[in-house]
Write a structure and sequence with these properties.
0% strand, single chain, mainly alpha
Length: 163
């Protein structure tokens, strides 16, 4: 029984570590605010693309992200869940996953909508508009890094999920 649970547990722990990596204060030439959204990449891959993570786990990841980044609790979870539901509905009807280019485009749209939604929610809830530069740079970095992370997630899926 433990052998059946262990692969899924490892993938969930990796997602938790990616949230920590996203909100940690990495001082690389002043780019602490614009790290790629590794947690969003994992959520897209393992929830929308592979349907492995449950919604409750994505909710917990969002709360964890908000708690670590000192945002209003639930803002990130709300963005995650609304986008996941939207993309799951669309995937049943019209999203095509025949090649990597289409998956990459879908992630770029997912990432853009997430950043826009989170920027709007946090701006409204805090009563002041944040700069759009940081989300824009995060979008570019995340879209570029998704290529590498998709390969990494493919490796993890092959290693832990497929026999």
């Amino acid at each position: 029984m433990i052998r059946a649970i262990l692969p899924n547990l490892i993938l969930h722990l990796i997602a938790i570590l990616l949230v920590i990596l996203n909100v940690s204060d990495v001082e690389i030439a002043g780019f602490a605010d614009v790290v790629p959204l590794f947690d969003l990449m994992a959520i897209f891959y393992f929830t929308v693309f592979r349907n492995i993570f449950a919604i409750w786990f994505v909710f917990v990841l969002g709360i964890w992200n908000d708690a670590l980044s000192d945002n209003m609790l639930g803002a990130t979870s709300l963005c995650y869940i609304l986008l996941i539901k939207l993309f799951l509905i669309l995937s049943n009807k019209m999203l095509i996953r025949e090649n990597f280019k289409q998956i990459w485009e879908q992630f770029a749209i997912f990432c853009f909508l997430f950043l826009l939604m989170k920027w709007m929610i946090l701006s409204v809830l805090n009563g002041s508009y944040y700069s759009i530069v940081t989300p824009f740079v995060q979008f570019i970095l995340s879209s570029v890094f998704y290529v590498l992370m998709h390969k990494f997630f493919d490796f993890l899926s092959a290693k832990f999920l497929e026999k």
